[in-house]
Amino acid sequence: MARKRLREEEEATLDMTPMLDIVFIMLIFFIVTTSFVKEAGIDVNRPEAAQATQKPSANIFIAIRENGEVWMDRRQVDVERVAANLERLLAEQPTDMVVIQADENARHGIVVKVMDQIKEAGIAQISIAAEND
């Protein structure tokens, strides 16, 4: 009787290997297909706009501070180097839209220079971030 009970317990075990294989494959799939957002890395006081509309989310953000500092991918960059840095980011993650988060007191000339650099990198869609009333 003891042998029969021992044999029943041995037959009742489940093989977990196929389930673990499927979970591992799903994990790899989700890691590969995930898109990461390249934040500017700083907070700016965006101007308020009554007619601001919600745009589809972009993957690359460029922030411009009040004192003229330009930030991309959590680091400060020179205005003339925005196109080169943007091309590097586009190689990692292609996108067709960039969002500029300019401080409400940022100089207009710096914002235009950044927009020129974005156009030079080959991106046609540029959005300026604003706060809704």
Written overview of the protein:
By secondary structure, the protein is of the alpha/beta class. The chain folds into 2 domains: 2-33; 48-132, Nucleotidyltransferase, domain 5, CATH 3.30.420. It has helices spanning 2-11, 17-33, 82-92, 108-120; strands at 48-49, 60-64, 70-72, 75-77, 97-102, 125-128, 131-132. Strand 2 (60-64) and strand 3 form a beta hairpin. The longest helix is centred in the N-terminal third of the chain and has 17 residues, at 17-33. The protein starts with a helix and ends with a strand. The model has no long low-confidence stretch (mean pLDDT 82). It is a single-pass membrane protein; Single-pass type II membrane protein. InterPro entries: ExbD. Keywords: Cell membrane, Membrane, Protein transport, Transmembrane, Transmembrane helix, Transport. Belongs to the ExbD/TolR family.
